[in-house]
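User: Here's a chain of 378 residues. Predict its fold as tokens.
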Amino acid sequence: MNSNERDSLNNLFVNIRFYIDWLYSDFLRKVLEYKQVSIITLYDLLQEQEYIIELESLRRYFNSNQRSSRFPPKDFVRAFCCCLELTCEQEEILLVLWVRMKVIRKFERKFKAGKLKIYKIPSRKAIFLDFEIEGGLCTVVIKSIIKSIGATMLITYEPTVFDRLHKFSDAKHSLANHKDVLGELGAVICKYGLQQKLGLTLLHKHFDLSPHERLIESVGDDKVYINPVAKVNEREIIPYLWKLSSGINGENCTQNLSWFPLEFQYKSVAQSDDINAVESLAANSNFLKEIAIKLQDFGVENVFGLSILHREAIAIAEGEILVETTDHEKRCFTLAAVNSSEVCKQELTETLWYFTTEENLGIASQCNSHCIQHCFGH
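Assistant: Prediction complete.
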């Protein structure tokens, strides 16, 4: 190695050392400096883009103090790039950096808290984690990396995914804040021609389950009942409702996402169309990947899930709506057709949507099911 090569190599490591301790906020602030844009000006540009944020919160995205800085959401990074008129390549670099720094940041926090474990993901390759401590920092070495992005649909139930569901009151509040994204999510469903058998559901729970219980649907007297069933034979049931999740610790790192089932019906009573729909959906990796990315981009992976449209057993006459009520003491959901005039609309919350693509209408969402606010057993 000649002197010029040695100097170039030394300069490379000087640059690496310079950037190695940077926070994501440091990179964003440096881009602002190069663009000669102040935070106040950026704030005004964001308002023009209809990205709503408090000025003080915006300042924290650019704070170099690790205790005071705040890691921004992905939609902010996209808005930031748009306001500064960055190129597509520059935006992509910032987004890749965002993903990597977010993963490392979460690993470090969990490691320091003693909550990080070595684990395996169902039906996926194992991830093995080794750690070295240097200067009080955690260095994460991933020996086996899952290369696919959140595109796997599982039939394996994971109790922690259900445990982390929002209670109904919180889910109702989240719906009010995010209902405007339903159309764009529905457009992905329609893009793949799945609107006849697939809809979106409001993720929520009314009561807790033990790890060995599953929510199983049954039909009788023109009603649908959903009860916890203990120690069910997994081979006898088929899911119809899923949530996007890591299934391990709730941290939705992009390379570690799957669709986990939450509610089931017995295969023996399931319609053949429903079974075919589940099988087709599980095989449609492109759709599962695209809808997963869309949910994450909007930050609504804990608000909306996927559901097979399969409630044909309930006859709904004109003027009737499908309403879900809950008996907390018996831990039972009941879905039945109810005359809409007999129900107080203020007590209803939409919980299931299907989509149409009629000519001159575009993508239209329609509510297929409601959850009544006043539930039995309160």
